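Notes continue from the previous slide.

Worked example: a multi-chain complex. Inputs as given:
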Amino acid sequence: MNLPIRTAIAIAAVVAIVAGCATSPSSQDLDREAQAAMKASFRDQGIAKVDRLNQDLGQAACSSDKPPSDAVAERIMAEARASVEWPAGGQYFGDWREGEKLAQSGRGMTWTDPSAATSANGGNCYNCHQISKAEISYGTIGPSLYNYGKLRGVSDLAAPSSQAVVEYTWMKIYNGKTVNACSNMPRFGHVGLLDPQQMSHLMSLLLDPKSPVNSQ
Amino acid sequence: MKTFVVGMAAVLGATGLAQAQGKSAAEGIAEYRKMLEDGNPADLFEAKGEALWKTRRGPKNATLEQCDLGKGPGVVKGAFVELPRYFADTKKVQDLETRLVTCMEALQGFDGAEIAKTPFGRGEQVALTALATWIAAESRGLRFNLPQGHAAEKKSYEIGKRVFFYRGGPYDFSCASCHGEEGKRIRLQDLPMLTKNPGDGVGFAAWPAYRVSNGEMWSMQLRLNDCFRQQRMPYPIFGSEATIALGSFMGVNAKGAESIAPAIKR
């Protein structure tokens, strides 16, 4: 059989491409293999069970070096907005001193923590944010929250003009994916890391004009 | 121990002084590390590791001197900066610790699965950490250059990248939550960006390291284990594919970075 030389080259090229596919897996193959590797690489320890690896829409869509499409990001934010439960009786505020204690505490939800109850959890706030001026040991993964209320013009918590920022702040603490689909911030209310009373203390820390965040 | 306590007091004084002189906290911490370098307790683990390498042990009463860490049987110098890599005999990509377990099993007759199940700081895990410390020290000053020629090595890097960005758990964290951006901190702790070469002796190029805060020698497997704990993830199995793939990802990204391991950390 005498194949024309060009046909022979074309066949050789096809064989090379097929062989290439066999040795270098596609991106989707690698995604599947990485999922399988994650599932096979962890075990339960204390309160940290392997079901923590099961991803919801937002976790899965925000698990790469590229952001999700606008459509997916919109869906994540819409679902997050629908998740927000507003405080019973409009009880948005508590005690900023309790809020400062929660902000300082980095405790909670690791396999060395004995309980996953909200009472065992801190807010982890200073790990990532500047908050009060006195605390110089603060992280920088999130924006500075120093003067949070003051910068937003909150001089009276009960004033109608404060309502929008109060609601926004509650929503952000409850589920930060409401405003940024791939926010680094844990969903304190949605996931049940903090209860409404604990969140009200953090609200006071950030917004109360008497809190050192705003008064100093 | 007395020298160490005196040293700590001097260091704490120096940190206070650094603050008084208006240096940044990071500069104060760097100064503190510099002062500790003369007396890094990792030296003790290094000496112990070297002795363990040359001592007849295990059911087969053999040394590890014929262990192939990737550069041929018995070659230690330069091995650390090329791991994880693919090994034809196990048909797996292995990091330093899992490769050592293979050698302890094959040459000395230890039960590898049993070692993998042993908690850090107990039994043969103590030997493993000392061995890893010495082997790393034998490559001090060399630059990372992980091989990526084998298909399994390329795949390990790609899986490691996906593991690095995998978000999950009650906090929605991934490795990238803390190590995906330049110049970030948790409290006062600087966080290296690990999606690229973070520089000489930073990140992957610093571990194993002696941790002053808890007085322990930490291997890379233990470093990753505690990262996952703080991510609020479940417990990573010792030597599991995800942990080795992360080593491939960080090690390849660190290409050209000088190894200072075993380092000393706060």
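Summary box: Chain B has two domains: 2-37, 40-266. The domain at 40-266 of chain B is CATH 1.10.760.10 (Cytochrome Bc1 Complex; Chain D, domain 2).
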